[in-house]
Amino acid sequence: MTEPDETDPLIREVHRHQARRASFARDGEPSVGRRLAQIGVLGWIIVAPMLLGIYVGRWLDVRFDSGLFWTAPLLLVGLGFGGWFAWRWMGSA
User: Which residue, 60, 58, 52, 38, is CA-closest to 80?
Assistant: First the structure.
């Protein structure tokens, strides 16, 4: 039988996974403060685009005297962007 080659993608992935697990065992579990900070950042990532949508929507509604015609849809657009930003941030962390 031949020795496995380091260029094999499966072998590389196994080595990467082992190194990550060893790093996690060495560093330990993140602190409660760090977890709370991550939750806070995640909340602001979602809320900030929603607030921007409300602000722009209210400005447009006052400018064109249109009730809630712009505020409601821009709030939902902000929610969509906030969810997308949060999804990307969670994937990178």
Answer: 52
